[in-house]
Each structure stands twice: as structure tokens, then as C-alpha cells.
């Protein structure tokens, strides 16, 4: 059950792209997700894109962690999401997070939107 | 000559003391080694001796009656002082150190002595294995010395084994004590959790219950004794009823505490306008609840999803507001079950929220299921969720059943689906019927 948080970080055109590699963002990972990514955001550029292509499932704790990051980053820049899985999109629809987060189809369109 | 100089005497004595060999039961393995020594060197006496501060003890012996002697007359005391090689006296009467020794001049009349040290696990020379004769034995060879040293090594290994076994036994005892403490603590925690779960059930409303124009039943299947799910229902006046369900993010004790506080906050004071005594609209209730529960200082604070609804007698509809909660399932007579998709933001997550009123026709004979996401996300052993299709099937199959009986059937189906006797997430559900004879 021990399942450590792993994520890749890249910088593109002044945007920080973070790709969590865990399949489930749930209560077991929520605190680490919030704290470790939160610390990473503070050193990075104003625009952060969270690439969720590997994340198949987000539970309520995971959603709380995402919103905590959004609020934290909102003070100094922007946090956007891309390539969210169908089950995650469904959760976002039910909780209306689709109105709170800017969500792009994939990483390329997220970066393109930023450049434009 | 200082006989105690080869190893610091205090460390040597400490090592000896730690092994608790003196007064311990005889050790057959040492007795066998001593027997081999006697036969190998054709001597009448062979011993394993331990050299203490002012005495020496023979913990294994053959051919010798005495179990201990003063250290002052000890040959072995000389042997441990030169631990790197066997200590050999070929004829004691010819050696000024031993010629007047009472063990030489009297019983057992030692003439020949050869001793090799045995060691504590830390290497300290604690005693010897020695062979003794009552006649002089000139010509004790290097090969003899090596054989005696090998026997001493065997004895040392035996003592090391014994020491390891003793440490293991001590470790096992510590483990047993620690395990016992954990068991006790676990038992206490189980009791406290059971008490908390019972307390939580007491603040939930009775099921089933008849309200103004509605019949309601509910169920709670907590994941870990206590639940982060909560619900309530009751009357707001002679003609109006309310119902709500909430799911605190996360589960376990922290979520249960917030769930319990929700049950205390959602009362008449919040639900009814104190000036007009009219029920507040569901959207208004959720906005007010968000004001009470949102804490700006708690950026990572716990939030919750919720549905609040009211029903008026003789009105064939209900009014609800949804805060990020899974869509309730509405069953109207003659139609398939349909999810109610209108939803707003969860509560206590953002400082400012607003909700649209959701007004649903509820003709007599209709029913609506409100549930928490633990139900739809309930996985079977193949990690398949108990999805909307199964929920619809259950609802269709239980048309006409009393709400309580219908929920019993739902619980049966979910438990069968789950296949194990615990849930990964809390499951709560309330089933609200518009009474058929009430319109």
C-alpha cells in the first residue's frame, strides 16, 4: 500500500510543467502532493501546468489537495491543468471544479494558450 | 609480574559477569569438549574454568572434585594473562611460581598443566580449557598446543551460541511485552472507536420515519468505525420537511468530528428565518452554511459536499440545492431512474459561493435516492465500481417496496458486490418517498 508520490518537472517557455506519475491521487497521497508540489511551485515561474495524464482517479482528499495548490499558486501566478482522465473530469464536473480550474486538452495546447 | 595485565581486568570481569555463566546449569556441549580433551591428551583431569576477581569456577570438569578455588592458587589466572598462546607448565614442582602452590603440594597434586583461553563474545579472555596431570609431561608439542587451542575455540563458539540464544530470548521477551502492550492499546482504541461510532449513530435520525408528505429511510456503512458521512431529516413545520446528506473529504476520526459538528449546526436556527418563521430556500441554507464552515485561515481545511432539500405537503415537487455532491437518483412513476445533474461548488472550500435552486417534480409514488460517493466508488475484487447502472437496476427492482426494505436490499447488493466485510470509503444513503396517498 505504500505508494510514494513521484512527479516529473520540466520548464517550457517560462512555464513550469509538473506531471505526477501516480495513478491514484487519494487520501494516501494528498498531504505529500500538497506539500511537495507546493514547495516546488514556490521556486518556479508564475505559470504552472499540472499534466494529469497518468492520474486515473482522484478522490475527495486529492481534490482538496489540488484546490489547496490552486489557492497557493493563485497568490503569485496561475495553476492550470491538462489532459485529465474521464473519471477525474467527471469528479470535476460534479464538484464544479471545471469552472474553477483552467483545463486544457493536452500539454501542447496548454503551452500554446500561454504563448498566445 | 602483573598477571592481570593482558586485557584490562575490569573489562574482562565485566564481560564475564555479563555472560551470567557462574551458577548456570551445566552445559552438555562443554562437558563433551572437556571429555574430548581428557581423552585426546590422556590426562586424568580436564576443566573449563572461569577466572573471576578473586576466585575461579570450573563450569565443566572431569577428574576433579572441587568446583572452585581461590584465584591466588589458580594456574588458569596465569593463562588468561597471556591469551595469545596456550600456557604450559610441564613440571610444576620445578617452577618457582607453582612449586609451593597448595594444588601442587596437596590434592589434586598437579604436576603438569596446559591451558588455552576461551573468550567472551567481545574477545575478552574469561577463562580456559585446561588439561592437568599428576605426573610431569615434558615435550608438550606445538601440535598439542594447536589442538588445545582448537578445543578452546570450540568452547568459545559454544559460549557464543549460548550468548546469542540468550540475546534472542531477551529480545523475544521484549517483543512479547511490546506486543502485549500494543494489543492492549489496540483493544482500547477499538473500544473508543466503537463508542465514537455508537455516539455518531445516536445523532443520526431514526430510520424509517414519516414526515410531512414523505417517508424517509437511511443507511450508514462506515469504512473505519466512524464515518465522515452524515445526513439528517425532519420537519420544519406542520407542512414542510427537510432532508440533507453530506460527505466530508477524507475519512476516519477527523472527518467524523466535522460530520458530528455538521449535525449540530444544521438545525432550525439555520433552516428557518427567525423573523418570518418561513423555511429558508435550500440555496440560501447552503450559502449560510458555507459562511459558518469556511475558515480563511485554514487554506488546507477540510471541505464537504452536500445536498439540502425541502418538501411541502400537497406540493408535488421538492426543492434542493447541490454542493458538489454526487447526483441524486430520481425515480418517477412510469419512468426509468434519472440522475439529477445540477450542482454547485462544495462547501467550506471557497469563501464565496452561490447555488441554483433545483426544483424537481415529485408526483405521488416517486422517490429519490441521495447517496455519498462511497456507494458508486465501492469496488469489487476486480476493482470495478458499483456504478450508476447497478444503482438504477436496484431502484427499478425495488419499486413498490417500503423505503427501509429497499435500502436493506441496496445494502445486501453492495455487500455482495464488495465481497469483503469492510469498505474503503464511507457509504451513506437516504431514500425519500413522496407518499402516494398524500397529494
Explain how this protein is built.
The complex is a heterodimer of chains A (116) and B (439). With 116 residues, chain A is α/β, with parallel strands linked by helices. Chain A has helices spanning 27-43, 60-74, 86-94, 97-100, 107-115; strands at 7-12, 15-20, 24-25, 47-51, 57-58, 78-82, 102-104. With 439 residues, chain B is of the alpha+beta class. Helix content of chain B is 35%, strand content 23%. Chain B is built from 11 helices and 17 strands. Chain B has helices spanning 9-18, 28-41, 76-81, 102-105, 142-203, 253-265, 268-271, 282-293, 373-376, 388-397, 403-418; strands at residues 45-51, 55-62, 68-70, 87-89, 112-119, 125-133, 209-211, 214-221, 229-235, 240-248, 304-312, 317-323, 329-331, 338-339, 358-361, 367-371, 427-434. In chain B, a hairpin with a 2-residue loop joins strand 7 and strand 8. In chain B, helix 2 (28-41) packs antiparallel against helix 5. Chain B is rod-shaped. The relative contact order of chain B is 0.09. The chains are: A alpha/beta (116), B alpha+beta (439). The interface between A and B is medium-sized, with 18 and 23 residues.
Mean pLDDT of chain B: 90
The main sheet of chain A orders its strands as 1-2-4-6-7
Fraction of helical residues of chain A:
40-55%
Classification by helices and strands of chain B: alpha+beta
How far apart, in Å, are the first and last alpha carbons of chain A?
43 Å
Could you tell me how far the N terminus lies from the C terminus of chain B, measured between alpha carbons in angstroms?
116 Å
Strand order of the largest sheet of chain B: 3-2-1-6-5-4
- Based on DSSP secondary structure assignment, what is the total number of beta strands of chain A? 7
CA radius of gyration of chain A is 13 Å
Portion of residues in beta strands of chain B equals 15-25%
Question: Which structural class should the secondary elements of chain A be placed in?
Answer: alpha/beta
Measured by DSSP, the beta-strand proportion of chain A falls in 25-35%
Find the count of extended strands of chain B (DSSP E, 2+ residues): 17
**Poorly predicted tracts of residues of chain B:** 1-5
Major interchain interface with per-chain residue totals = A-B, 18 and 23 residues
The mean pLDDT of chain A is 89
**What is the alpha-carbon Rg of chain B in Å?**
43 Å
Number of helices of chain A: 5
Contiguous helical run count of chain B:
11
| Sequence stretches where pLDDT stays below 50 over 5 or more residues of chain A | none
Largest sheet report of chain A: 5 strands, mixed
Amino acid at each position: 500500500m505504500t505508494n510514494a508520490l513521484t512527479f516529473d518537472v520540466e520548464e517550457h517557455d517560462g512555464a513550469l510543467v509538473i506531471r505526477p506519475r501516480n495513478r491514484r491521487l487519494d487520501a494516501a497521497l494528498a498531504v505529500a502532493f500538497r506539500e511537495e508540489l507546493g514547495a516546488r511551485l514556490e521556486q518556479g515561474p508564475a505559470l504552472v501546468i499540472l499534466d494529469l495524464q497518468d492520474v486515473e482517479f482522484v478522490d475527495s482528499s486529492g481534490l482538496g489537495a489540488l484546490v489547496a495548490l490552486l489557492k497557493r499558486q493563485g497568490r503569485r501566478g496561475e495553476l492550470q491543468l491538462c489532459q485529465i482522465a474521464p473519471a477525474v473530469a467527471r469528479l470535476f464536473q460534479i464538484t464544479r471544479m471545471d469552472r474553477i480550474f483552467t483545463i486544457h486538452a493536452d500539454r501542447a495546447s496548454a503551452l500554446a494558450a500561454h504563448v498566445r | 609480574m602483573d598477571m592481570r595485565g593482558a586485557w584490562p581486568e575490569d573489562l574482562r570481569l565485566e564481560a564475564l559477569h555479563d555472560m551470567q555463566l557462574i551458577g548456570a546449569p551445566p552445559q552438555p556441549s562443554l562437558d563433551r569438549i572437556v571429555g574430548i580433551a581428557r581423552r585426546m591428551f590422556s590426562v586424568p583431569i580436564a576443566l573449563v574454568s572461569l577466572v573471576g576477581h578473586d576466585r575461579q569456577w570450573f563450569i565443566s570438569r572431569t577428574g576433579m572434585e572441587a568446583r572452585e578455588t581461590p584465584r591466588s592458587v589458580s594456574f588458569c589466572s596465569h593463562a588468561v594473562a597471556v591469551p595469545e598462546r596456550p600456557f604450559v607448565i610441564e613440571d610444576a614442582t620445578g617452577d618457582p611460581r607453582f612449586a609451593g602452590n597448595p594444588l601442587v603440594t596437596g590434592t589434586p597434586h598437579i604436576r603438569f598443566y596446559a591451558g588455552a583461553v576461551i573468550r567472551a563474545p567481545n574477545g575478552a579472555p574469561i577463562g580456559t580449557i585446561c588439561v592437568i596431570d599428576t605426573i610431569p609431561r615434558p615435550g608438550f608439542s606445538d601440535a598439542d598446543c594447536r589442538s588445545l587451542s582448537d578445543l578452546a575455540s570450540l568452547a568459545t563458539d559454544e559460549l557464543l551460541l549460548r550468548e546469542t540464544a540468550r540475546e534472542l530470548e531477551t529480545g523475544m521477551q521484549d517483543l512479547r511485552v511490546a506486543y502485549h502492550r500494543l494489543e492492549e492499546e489496540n483493544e482500547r482504541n477499538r473500544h473508543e472507536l466503537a463508542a465514537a461510532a455508537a455516539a455518531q449513530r445516536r445523532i443520526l435520525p431514526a430510520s424509517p420515519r414519516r414526515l410531512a408528505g414523505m417517508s424517509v429511510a437511511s443507511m450508514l456503512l462506515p469504512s473505519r468505525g466512524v464515518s465522515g458521512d452524515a445526513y439528517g431529516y425532519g420537519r420544519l413545520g406542520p407542512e414542510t420537511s427537510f432532508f440533507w446528506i453530506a460527505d466530508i473529504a477524507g475519512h476516519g476520526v477527523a472527518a467524523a468530528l466535522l460530520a458530528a459538528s455538521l449535525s449540530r449546526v444544521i438545525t432550525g436556527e439555520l433552516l428557518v428565518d427567525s423573523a418570518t418563521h418561513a423555511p429558508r430556500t435550500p440555496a440560501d441554507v447552503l450559502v449560510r452554511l458555507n459562511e459558518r464552515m469556511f475558515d480563511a485561515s485554514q487554506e488546507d481545511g477540510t471541505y464537504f459536499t452536500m445536498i439540502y432539500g425541502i418538501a411541502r405537503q400537497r406540493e408535488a415537487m421538492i426543492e434542493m440545492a447541490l454542493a458538489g455532491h454526487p447526483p441524486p437518483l430520481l425515480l418517477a412513476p412510469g419512468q426509468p431512474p434519472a440522475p439529477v445533474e445540477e450542482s454547485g461548488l462544495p462547501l467550506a472550500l471557497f469563501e464565496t459561493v452561490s447555488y441554483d435552486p433545483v426544483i424537481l417534480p415529485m408526483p405521488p409514488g416517486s422517490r429519490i435516492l441521495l447517496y455519498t460517493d462511497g456507494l458508486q466508488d465501492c469496488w469489487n475484487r476486480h476493482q470495478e465500481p458499483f456504478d450508476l447502472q447497478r444503482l438504477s437496476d436496484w431502484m427499478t427492482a425495488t419499486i413498490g417496496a417500503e423505503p427501509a426494505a429497499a435500502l436493506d436490499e441496496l445494502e445486501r447488493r453492495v455487500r455482495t458486490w464488495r465481497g469483503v466485510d469492510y469498505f474503503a470509503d464511507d457509504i451513506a444513503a437516504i431514500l425519500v418517498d413522496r407518499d402516494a396517498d398524500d397529494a
